[in-house]
Amino acid sequence: MIPIRIVLVDTTHPGNIGAVARAMKNMALQDLVLVRPTALPSAEATARASGADDLLMRARVSDSVEAAIADCGFVIGCTARERVQHWQVLEPRAAAARMIVESATRSVAVLFGAERIGLTNEELARCHCLLRIPANPQYESLNLAMAVQIVCYELFVASGGSLPRAERAVPLASAAEMQRLYAHLDEVMKEVDFTDRTQAGVHLMGRLQRLFNRAELDENEVNILRGLLTAIQGKRRTAGSRSAGGGA
After folding, report:
1. Mind listing the pLDDT tens digit for each residue in 97-149?
2. Quick one: which of 225, 239, 224, 226 has its CA closest to 192?
3. What is the spatial distance between Cα 180 and Cα 182, in angstroms, rounded to a whole number?
4. DSSP strand E in 113-192: where?
5. Are 105 and 166 in contact (CB under 8 A)?
6. Quick check: 173 and 221 in contact, CB under 8 A?
7. Contact at 8 Å (CB) between 29 and 6?
8. What is the pLDDT of residues 176-222, one digit of tens each?
């Protein structure tokens, strides 16, 4: 589990609290503190937790931000304000990386304010730096749970969480195999008179090599392409022989 505390301050909608619990459990966080929630416990919060009700039940309730972060050595506040003087403002990815580093030596918390007004100046004053989620300038309004989900996701990624690396059933083609493919391709292109039509006349093979390199061909795929090229050569030779015989 990721040792970062999520602190919700003056949350007015219990459904948001449940959705936050779900977002946290999705991303391997479990330390949730609620400062002066309007309604809790709540059937709506439990329903929105959707399987994360165990995390919701463990959430601690505090009567002040000061108490909620008393043991924390590093605190970040989430803000929607475009310009905030006197504070360093980080985007979620940079903020998550910083929190993961700081969590190795001290307790870390990230604060989210009330849905309507966010964190007050007094609450911001308790933060070491701020976090702002960039969004469409024409519509920057993020739901509280959505904002928490974004931050939790970035924390998950920063902590090393990722999709499991897929094992290849067939190894990638070696550099030598790729060079043999390119040589074979060049041979067939000359046979069918498929040449570079650009003024310099030297870029076509380079472009084809870059195309196949981006595709990350495996050994089987290279063999398929080599087989196709060989079949093209065979058809041309057969057609050439018939043509020569018909003219005799």
Report:
1. 999 999 999 999 999 999 888 999 899 889 999 999 999 988 888 899 999 99
2. 239
3. 5
4. 129-131
5. no
6. yes
7. yes
8. 999 999 999 999 999 998 877 665 556 788 889 999 998 889 999 99
Is residue 201 left, alpha or beta, with left meaning phi > 0 and alpha meaning psi from -120 to 50? Answer: left
* Among candidate residues 93, 72, 86, the one with its CA nearest the CA of residue 156: 93
Both tokens assigned to 91: 């985007």
Entry pTM: 0.72
Q: Which CATH architecture group holds 175-246?
A: Orthogonal Bundle (1.10)
Q: Are residues 34 and 12 in contact, defined by beta-carbon separation less than 8 angstroms?
A: no
Sign of the alpha-carbon torsion through 4, 153, 15, 77: positive
- Which DSSP helix (H) or strand (E) runs through 89? strand 89-90
Q: Which amino acid is at 243?
A: S
Q: At what angle do helices 144-158 and 92-102 cross, to 10 degrees?
A: 60
State how far the Cα of 194 lies from the Cα of 209, in Å rounded to an integer. Answer: 16
Superfamily the domain 2-158 falls into: SPOUT methyltransferase, trefoil knot domain (3.40.1280.10)
How many C-beta atoms surround the C-beta of residue 89 within 10 A? 16
Provide the residue type at 3 as one letter: P
CB 130 within 8 A of CB 82: no
